[in-house]
């Protein structure tokens, strides 16, 4: 079946499976279908490869049992394709769920030239499966030349419905005819089939067939028929059948830098040299050299540190010792890094390799418990930490705070601040670690430095091997900090002599007689260094100390670089929360102690503890303003006033040119700047850096790429305040969403990709774009990339990057100064099936570009425009490290009437309709019934606390002590109906929501707005931005965009404080009326609220109990607000159904029943302890000996909030609850809290916790945590005679042993 299209063409092939060896990989239903498919074709052999525990299809297990397949219980390896010379694999059918494994399978198959099909990943396939109809001997394949699969299914159904009933008999008769005629009489077979209709062919008997054979074989066949016979015979045993022979020219042009999935191709650089790489690749080059085993703890799907090393290992690249390296991906969870202990515990101490870990700072926290053991074991280990975090708005930030949490573990901590430094410091750190056996954290900026492309001088592996041999003779046995740092500097000096780059534990930049100094360690370092360097050159007495080696801390080395003239020192350090502001920062404390030592002989300077939040951005203006504050106010305050300061010394390096590329993901132009950078690396003498910022959540996905280039060394920070020399806007719609020219220099070159004519720019370009263009007198160019692609006869997706690379190199030729022609520079980085075609294709694009690039003379009318009141963002927020990997469109929700669901319910099997409980949720859920709901506080009391019980009979719900019940609350029905009426929705209409695979969830409008969507919840900022796209009222649209912008942050903050809901926003901006199909995707789902379970299942086998307090308050406008779930629970009646799930908890009883249990519960924090007490009572009733229990319970009033008071008193009288300590804070003049009761029990706490190995638990709000900890520390001091340091260490040890457990909120 063939078809023609104007836009593309295809080559469709099919393989004969009979007598072949088919390899099938995977254990899911798709793999099962492929086994069935292959079995019908009667291949010589079917091999199935998948781990047995990955098999999810019962049919596959049946095939294995029946030996229909040769089964191999393992993951796929490349050797599986050619394990047996007598039975090579002829065809690979893969159905694995792992994207990376799919890539590996495809690459291995292609290397062996074996046809491969990868399920659901067409870009990795050599061929695809067509929808087929199969009826014994008849198999019909339907191709629609790449159009929608739904059309193919319709065609298949049409064929099935219109096939004659006797079709199979006709095919059997044709087979018998062919056997009797033989291969040499194909023309006779053609004549028989042409003269007989299908119905008559089906009715032929064997005798009839023999008669026909005799008749037609006596007829002479002419020359033409003989030729047909020859042609037919030649294809009879062919492996490939050509169905549609057309050539796809566009597919012959592809980038050498990007793989089929759009990811960067990163080669190994064992021979070293100057290479254009990012920081993470530079560090991987060094770590791979030293390591036989490396572990990756990725926190992102792509662009994680270790990704290149993982690929090098799969390519069998060898390290400096000539060994193959293992690079293993791990999951980040509590106790991460334990694998290091298992891998290296039995290693020899004299070995010269080290182990590497690649991770982000977010993964350090769960690793810390194992760090102490790693230090004790003296394991040579370097953890390369990309300092990266993500806030609650999904925005990325440089996160040093989490990495530095390891400061007291005994690990060394060393920092890098540029791509070259990352390479050099990684080298120094590995050398130090293998010689001292001290494990190190090597920390670097994970947001910019890790990802920014720079020219880095990579050391060859043979040079590294020489260095390793040289350090064996150096002394390395001391444990004293200053001596260790001397040793580090000794190795750094040795490396420096080789590379020409010197590093020290602390590095000073600035005036040698400086009076004001910053100390920096973090994301602010590079920009602070550059600003101070330029300001001090201008005569100001300022300086900066860069902390290179933070641990071990050496007072001697720090004070050695401090100018004796210093009067003021500000210590900049990042903190996560406001609570951290009240404590002296760790670096600040180290410095304060250093100046108190007898090493410092000068006058003690004023020390300023300058903490800043994770959201703080740094620019030259801000650094300068901070210096001004330090110099004149002797204080540092981070606020908006910093931006008002003006720099009176120029910071701009006019020799560095800055370029900005605006891309939308839809345009597929993201790789343009990467290609330009590689071209400049090979064909220009310029220094350069390239860095992309990704916002995948807003405006359909936007990417900006900054390219800096010049003869001078690029400083490492982008001074955007100096403006851009070249701006390329690849999607003209972005001019409506961003102020794309606000940062342009006067006279900048600006390129717009658009189909608009010059005359149309006047009416279609936004007012502010035209205003800025005129104000800055830009050189404006427009081009139509789609038309260029059409004119050269190529697919736009293939050539769009070629178009914009060529545009930049042409318009900026006076800066880049290539050493070859523009066309030749571009050609170097593309390839195709026909290498002779590639230069021709690219030259034709460049020639067409010359004709199509239009210079626009700015109309005089643009010069009289005034700037509008609209405030568009200048830049985008970083919320990803890569493009959106989930870019392919998914099915959208569909609105239907109730008849559809009724039909599905009536004919469940026909429509494959199933009833499930919340199929949208990943966790297992249960439907349980309310059996009791009673208020515990008096009706007159202003707080509503209640006890609620659920009957779980008939469910398989099981819960352990300390676990929480996740409740999926409903919105108020009356409020939902009110909203639906306002929005014009019929509550009984049905909406279909896409779920896994091709499935849809069916719910009424009322159900989804009541049970699923958080309609009365508080939206994130991006909801305002998304809603603006639907606003028809211009003022409403502008206000929504303003609230979503940085300028509207204060307004958004007020709205958050007032809990303005989704519903209220839709009421307020009534012109923004998304269709319900879109609205259900814009509103976040209701999240389960988790409540600690207040019962033991051993005592209540068929019920689960909760202790809940309703949450309600008034906002600033006096509007009442309610906690969605507590309001729902409080209103439940006996017998009503509730959907729940179970969430595990760290709150567990001690392993031995005899161990003491100390519980501290505030208010509803009492819940898990009621369960603890019930469980201990149950075990005691079983005759087991149980240890003492103390309960410290706190609430406001005994008469109002003594929760479960009668039960507690009974347990206390019985002796199970050994000590009952009650703190009712408002029953007396002076407030009494649980920590006061604990202070009175110093002897008891010391006895139970330290001597009797008891466990301590705190459940409730966070505020008493410090006081409770102090009470325990004081008990160890007063009753145990420990020093304050020893007591604090004991509390930390209890935490590590999981005997000090907090569940606070």
UniProtKB/TrEMBL annotation:
GO terms for cellular component: cytosol. Its cofactor is FMN; FAD. Pfam families: FAD_binding_1, NAD_binding_1, NAD_binding_7, POR, POR_N. PROSITE patterns: FAD_FR (PS51384). SUPFAM superfamilies: Ferredoxin reductase-like, C-terminal NADP-linked domain, NAD(P)-binding Rossmann-fold domains, Pyruvate-ferredoxin oxidoreductase, PFOR, domain III, Riboflavin synthase domain-like, Siroheme synthase middle domains-like, Thiamin diphosphate-binding fold (THDP-binding), TK C-terminal domain-like. GO terms for biological process: siroheme biosynthetic process. GO terms for molecular function: 4 iron, 4 sulfur cluster binding; flavin adenine dinucleotide binding; FMN binding; metal ion binding; oxidoreductase activity, acting on the aldehyde or oxo group of donors; precorrin-2 dehydrogenase activity; sulfite reductase (NADPH) activity. Coiled coil: none annotated. It catalyses: precorrin-2 + NAD(+) = sirohydrochlorin + NADH + 2 H(+); hydrogen sulfide + 3 NADP(+) + 3 H2O = sulfite + 3 NADPH + 4 H(+). Pathway: Porphyrin-containing compound metabolism; siroheme biosynthesis; sirohydrochlorin from precorrin-2: step 1/1; Sulfur metabolism; hydrogen sulfide biosynthesis; hydrogen sulfide from sulfite (NADPH route): step 1/1. Residues 923-1151 form the FAD-binding FR-type domain. Keywords: 4Fe-4S, Electron transport, FAD, Flavoprotein, FMN, Iron, Iron-sulfur, Metal-binding, NAD, NADP, Oxidoreductase, Porphyrin biosynthesis, Transport. Signal peptide: none annotated. Transmembrane segments: none annotated. InterPro entries: CysJ-like_FAD-binding (IPR003097), FAD-bd_FR_type (IPR017927), Flavoprot_Pyr_Nucl_cyt_Rdtase (IPR001709), FNR_nucleotide-bd (IPR039261), NAD(P)-bd_dom_sf (IPR036291), NADPH_Cyt_P450_Rdtase_alpha (IPR023173), OxRdtase_FAD/NAD-bd (IPR001433), Pyrv/ketoisovalerate_OxRed_cat (IPR019752). This enzyme catalyzes the 6-electron reduction of sulfite to sulfide. This is one of several activities required for the biosynthesis of L-cysteine from sulfate. This is FAD-binding FR-type domain-containing protein.
